[in-house]
User: Fold these one by one.
Assistant:
Number 1:
Amino acid sequence: MKSALFAAVLALLSCAQAGAAGPANLVSNGSFEDAPASPGHWVIVEAIPGWQGDPEVVGGLAGGIEIQNQGFENIRAQDGVNLVELDTYRNSWMTQTIQATGWVRLSFWYAARAGWGAGTQDLGFGLGTLSGSVLQGVAGGTSVQWQHYVGLADLGSSGSAVLRFAAQGQSDMAGGLLDNVSVTAVPEPQAAALWLAGLGLLGALRRRRRRITRS
Ligand SMILES: [Ca+2]
Ligand SMILES: [Ca+2]
């Protein structure tokens, strides 16, 4: 009986572990690897798989998405070989619709473009209840230094929300860099509670076994 209960607890824990291991990235092409940039070059396009760029031409200047392949200006991508800059010919934006409800975790990597001053690198972002900007007042150094942003967003109950990035600050064809974007579901509180309850039951069984062994 005890061994059957012990096996049941182990099965419960392994189920909870399987559920917690590596939630799927809800962003399509989040590292921009599916894009037409050739080695060491950049290209500005209206859209890439998964992402729509600003399609307007303003004052003769297109918006779109600038894809940089690493090697251009000796930049190393944070993940893979491609990255994005959104001060293209002017300050531009890109969006992707995320299919999810409730709380999600937004993660992305960003860096100031080397050799460019503060006030031109600002990168805005938004998803559900979450919005903000990074690189405000930050100047680029002599090389690209990637930093990690993580935040929680409530997408509500409608089933979808728009993920948006936008170049801000001075519009001068140079801005903050972006790579490795992910949105993942936040584990249900019930799953975490189940995991903790399983651990507690396992500990109680082990303590009881030790007492039985001693007596
Ligand atoms: Ca990449
Ligand atoms: Ca700029």
Number 2:
Amino acid sequence: MSMLSKENTSEIFEDIKRNLTRGVKDRKHTFHTPVFCNVDNENNIESRVVVLRQFDSPNMVLNFHTDFRSPKVFSLQQNNNSLFVFYDHKLKIQLRIKTISTINNQNKVTEEMWDKTKLFSRKCYLTEKAPSSPTNLPEDGIDESLGGKEPTFEESEKGYKNFTVVQNQIKQIDWLYLAASGHRRLKIIIEKKIPSFQWIIP
Ligand SMILES: Cc1cc2nc3c(=O)[nH]c(=O)nc-3n(C[C@H](O)[C@H](O)[C@H](O)COP(=O)(O)O)c2cc1C
């Protein structure tokens, strides 16, 4: 880790952006798999691990992929308030990032990302029943003919209608740095892409 100052707000902000960018590219980085939270239409809190697929640093947008039929898509359409939690043990940094989510399905955004998706990854979108459907058997929901193998391009294309890109516009970042010498905590509010900073007691 660099000898980055943990007292300089703009350096901290730059470091956050660098780590989110690394989280997308480096599959071994802990920021690759944040916890994403939202509320369902009965106000129950829902959290799950997702793969961070893109970080648009100039626009402060975090993206992940999902199946259109999954319950979180419907919930986010009703209430688009969401939250990511990241933690890195080595960096000693927790990020809690409040976002506003937008669902993309069968549009320009999904078209572009689907083209970049590997055949094997497309398999996730080929379950016959919707994700979260009950089933009598312990199964992955994918037709037996595709068991253990990569789908052909034609087979994989059936998944496109389910492929969904969730874009999450960052509103606020709660940065927490744990250090024996004294913890530090910074609230960063992003308005019209401009950050403003407020130190807070950890
Ligand atoms: C390492 C890991 C990565 C995951 N990545 C994703 C993902 O990118 N998108 C996704 O929808 N689910 C992903 N999941 C599965 C979710 O955690 C969750 O089980 C699933 O999406 C169902 O959530 P829901 O019932 O809230 O819709 C991942 C799970 C793990 C363990």
